[in-house]
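note to self — DONT lose this again. spent like an hour looking for the file last time. sequence + predicted structure for the chain T wanted, 444 res
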Amino acid sequence: MLVAQGELTPRLQLLEKLIDARRRSDQLFDIVHPASLYARPIRERHRIIFYIGHLEAFDWNLLHQRAFELKSFNPDFDRLFAFGIDPVGGGLPSDRAEDWPAHEIVRDYVRRVRAALDDKLNEVGQETSPTKFEGNSIETLLNVAVEHRLMHVETLAYMLHQLPTDQKVHRDEPATTPTRAVDHRMVQIAAGDVTLGLARDSSSFGWDNEFASHTQSVSAFEIDKYMVTNRQFLEFVGAQGYENRAWWSNEDWEWKNAAGISHPAFWKRESDTWLYQTMFSEIPLPLDWPVYVSQAEAAAYARWAGKSLPTEAEWHHAAYGELEGQQRLYPWGDRLPEAVAGNFHFRRWSPSPVNAYPDTQSAFGVEGMLGNGWEWTSSVFAPFPGFEPFSFYRGYSADFFDGKHFVMKGGSARTAACMLRPTFRNWFQPHYQYVYAGFRCVKR
């Protein structure tokens, strides 16, 4: 068992974070009825059983030879569970449930991997001298292991959300307090310079796509004070927005028609009523929650409204900028997310009303830019100047610099606090509806 002992040095703090991340991933798999572990709730993704093995295989493949010179005890599983699926290109997976190992065998692999790694990690945790592996510190490798797992804790929630409710063990969540009526309006953002990314000499951890820091100039613009709500998007649906060719790009129109898409994936029509599928039940459509849609749907709505999606730099400026030209650590200031009321760090399963957290307001008066739903931008995911891939994970970002993925910023209710840093960049392809992602619009 991995145990952080003694005074919590930065290295021991990382081990504590790994313990916590494992606990969260184990708890997530526990909500799936055992008979459903071989289900594929999203057709573009692996079966659930794959991810039980993948999280441990990733840690093992990252650390066992590179850092600890451990001999593999199941090379076949190390390869089988190594890589997930990106739904862009390559067709849909065609494997059968019976092609996968039995659940007990996968669980045994997980136990053996953890035990072998933990013996070494406990030793490293007690050391104080810098330790380098192929030019990378043990701290960097541990941060990668922690954040990779926490990313999957979130993206697995997207998958399990699509699993029928009778195949899941119900979990309660805190009720949201009533909020005032949403004052839908736009906020003026002054022109300014925006610093994106981390400096190469930064002591903070960042993934390879977060480097290197550089400055961009942003002209003045207006941005929605709140994320677009289900209520607002319902107007687009009612105005035949999904049927009007004018609001869609050629590629998005073809995708929508081929897939027969006529509303957000989290909505369900029942007679004359719209329902919303939460993780564990169907409820009347919550009109003041942010709408979760694909980037293609968000862009179509923005065109219909006579607006646009923000660029990555514009979103960043509205979130972190100040009138004096400085940048904040978080939209609300320097307080850590754990000390701020907001819908992030696994506090809820569902969104909250878009105006539920006024204390998260940015210097310009924009609310809710961290948590409650990632926010689509119009920026194609691409390398920053000076990009260098991780030597131990060369494809993490580079494989997605293909012009087919778009940057998302912010975070959702299931995003860990460590990934709410201003430099963190998320990305998905524009035709994937299952992400906890919404948007806000801009006028230039």
